[in-house]
Structure formats: structure tokens, C-alpha cells
Amino acid sequence: MPGSGGTIDVHTLLHRAGIDAATIEAVTGIDALMQNWRRRAAKRELGHKALVDLKIGIDLAQLDVLCAIEAPADEFGEMAGGETMVASVAERLAIDPSRASRIVAEMVEMDYARRAVSQADARRTIVELTASGKAVVAAVRAYKFLIMGDFFSEWSAEELGRFLPLLRKFAKWSEHSEPAAAKFAAEIAMLAQGIASSRLEPLRG
């Protein structure tokens, strides 16, 4: 199966692993789309445009913190709800607590957020949005929904009805990585060996 230089015929590998041709075609196509999407998402073009068009004088990292303080349930799921502390912001955004603390402080200084005393424990400091902060989060979300709404308005009701459930199902695919890696341990070991062998090629020459 390894070709010259230790390269792998991916279709043959997947076929021998028991994955059918239609799934192989779907997997390779979906991965190509995801990689392209990931690169575009990393640029966060829509987020930048929203901040510019709405004339909001903050950057995307600061916007993320405001959204994490607000924590809309449809976006943050189980992490939404309850009182928000700096640690909550760090967890919701998967960033370092010191970075979360610094950006929260910036938002407090700019009057987009404020510190308050917890109603559950007076010794604990929580963070909440001011009216300005709430306005920013609401406006950015509305901006995004306008753009997305315009795009999806060209889809049929049937397409929309199928897409969201499938997207929700697809969103859980990464949870499958560990059991799948265990299932294909032999194939993965072979891939690793192919890399190791390719490093020896110049020495053999």
C-alpha cells in the first residue's frame, strides 16, 4: 500500500479498513470543505465586517469575551446559565484564565462590563454586561443572523429541515475520534511506520 517515499494510497487504506466507496468519497470531500472553511473561519471575515459596519471600537477577542459573559444558551449550551466569573469566561472560550482576566478588565474599563457581588456567595466576584455590552452582543448576533438569514432564504424548507438535524449530528463527529483511533490502531501504526521509513530514504540513497 505505501507508495514511493512511504506515501499511502488513502482510498485503498480506507477500503481495506472496511469503509465503503460512497463513504470514502464523502469523507474526502467533507474534509476538503472543512479545511477550506477552517482557514476562512480563522480569518473571521464576518466578525471583522460586523465590528466595522456597526462602528464598534473593540477587537474580536474583546467581542468574544462579551459574548462569553452573556453566554447565549444556543451558543454555549451547558456552559451557559448561572453567574459568570472570570473563570467562567476562560472556560467558555477555552483560553488561559490570565488572558480572560486581562480582557475582562479591558471591557470593564470601557464600560461594556462591570464587576458585581455574587448573590449566592458574597465573597465571590462575578462579571456581567452593562447596557452597552448587551447592546453590542445583541447587535453583532443580529448582524450575523441577517447575513445568514439572507443566504438560507434561498434554501427550500425541505433543505433547511434536513440540514440542521444533520449538522447537529455531524457536530459530534470529533467525539468519535478516540474509539475510532483504538479501532484502527494497526492502520495508524502502519501510517506512523510509513513516516519513519520515509525519513530513512535519503540515508539509504
Question: How would you describe what is shown here?
Answer:
With 205 residues, the chain is mainly alpha-helical. It has three domains: 1-43; 45-152, Winged helix-like DNA-binding domain superfamily/Winged helix DNA-binding domain (Arc Repressor Mutant, subunit A, Orthogonal Bundle), CATH 1.10.10.10; 160-191, no CATH class. The chain is built from eleven helices and two strands; from the N terminus they run H-H-H-H-H-H-H-E-E-H-H-H-H. It has helices at residues 10-16, 21-43, 45-53, 60-70, 73-76, 86-93, 97-109, 131-152, 157-170, 177-183, 185-204; strands at residues 113-117, 125-129. A two-stranded antiparallel sheet has the order 1-2. Strand 1 (113-117) and strand 2 form a beta hairpin. Helix 4 packs across helix 8. The longest helix has 23 residues, at 21-43. The model has no long low-confidence stretch (mean pLDDT 89).
Features:
205 residues; Arc Repressor Mutant, subunit A; two-stranded antiparallel sheet; single chain; 3 domains; mainly alpha
